[in-house]
């Protein structure tokens, strides 16, 4: 991880503001159909709430998710439920532009298959072409153990090269089955951003910076990568 990939801010508020500007600039630079991949977890909520008030071309924006917890859609732990409450319920996005990972199927495996098919239909091909990234923007989070999406340390999903979405076990709370996009898909984007806040992330972030093997460090997007971090995550304050 080179320093030019890092956008460091003082605290969680400033971090959300910096990511907001990045989000706005990236989306406004998009074409007639803009695909963004959001993430769950608690850190992006602040960004999502800021984006409620921004004038964005929502009728042209399609929203996907990098991973989902296999709980009912109205469960507060459901990632899309959080994204709806914090952002999507407050903007004029057409219903059909919101691409949730269904958790009302027989299994996470089935949900992963359905989401993979939905992504391929949206993309219009079964193979990802580096010249034509799937997403305009992918927002990533990182757990205390260095996981991103639901790609946890030691998981077979980390090396999945064919499937676009797979079922995965949770390595951290909440311990519910997951559905996650795989690295080749998360990497197929014009802009990729990590949003990392708080002292609990300092150890994992240090490992990423040293080039050690944590899942988040494996992400090699086709487009530009930015790590939005705050001072606490950088280990500069407690
Ligand atoms: C999930 C997330 C996960 C998350 C990180 C960071 O479903 O849990 O997608 O990958 O981004 O765990 O989460 P926090 O922002 O809550 O620290």
From TrEMBL:
| Keyword Hydrolase attributed | yes
> Which of the seven top EC classes does this enzyme belong to?
hydrolase
Which GO molecular function, any one, fits this protein according to its record? Answer: 6-phosphogluconolactonase activity
Q: What is its EC number?
A: 3.1.1.31
| Domain Glucosamine/galactosamine-6-phosphate isomerase, first and last residues per copy | 11-227
Pathway(s) where this gene product acts: Carbohydrate degradation; pentose phosphate pathway; D-ribulose 5-phosphate from D-glucose 6-phosphate (oxidative stage): step 2/3
Which keywords has UniProt assigned to this entry? Hydrolase
Q: Which reaction does it catalyse?
A: 6-phospho-D-glucono-1,5-lactone + H2O = 6-phospho-D-gluconate + H(+)
At the top level, the lineage of the source is Bacteria
Q: Which family does it belong to?
A: Belongs to the glucosamine/galactosamine-6-phosphate isomerase family. 6-phosphogluconolactonase subfamily.
Report the function annotation for this chain. Answer: Hydrolysis of 6-phosphogluconolactone to 6-phosphogluconate.
Protein name in UniProt: 6-phosphogluconolactonase
Query: Which species is the source of this protein?
Result: Terrihabitans rhizophilus
């Amino acid at each position: 991880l080179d320093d030019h990939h890092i956008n460091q801010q003082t605290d969680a508020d400033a971090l959300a503001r910096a990511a907001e500007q990045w989000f706005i600039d990236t989306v406004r630079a998009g074409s007639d159909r803009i695909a963004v991949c959001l993430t769950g977890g608690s850190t992006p909520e602040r960004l999502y709430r800021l984006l409620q008030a921004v004038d964005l071309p929502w009728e042209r924006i399609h929203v996907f998710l990098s991973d989902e917890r296999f709980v009912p859609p109205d469960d507060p732990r459901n990632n899309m439920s959080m994204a709806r409450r914090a952002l999507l319920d407050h903007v004029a996005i057409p219903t059909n532009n919101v691409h949730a990972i269904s958790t009302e199927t027989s299994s996470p495996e089935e949900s992963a298959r359905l989401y993979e098919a939905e992504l391929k239909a949206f993309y219009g091909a079964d193979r990802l072409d580096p010249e034509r990234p799937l997403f305009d923007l992918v927002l990533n989070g990182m757990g205390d153990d260095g996981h991103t999406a639901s790609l946890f340390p030691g998981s077979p999903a980390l090396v999945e090269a064919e499937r676009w979405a797979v079922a995965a076990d949770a390595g951290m709370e909440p311990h519910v089955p997951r559905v996650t996009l795989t690295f080749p898909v998360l990497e197929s984007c014009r802009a990729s951003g990590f949003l990392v806040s708080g002292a609990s992330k300092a150890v994992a972030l240090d490992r990423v910076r040293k080039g050690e093997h944590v899942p988040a460090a494996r992400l090699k997007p086709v487009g530009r990568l930015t790590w939005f971090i705050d001072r606490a995550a950088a280990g500069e304050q407690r």
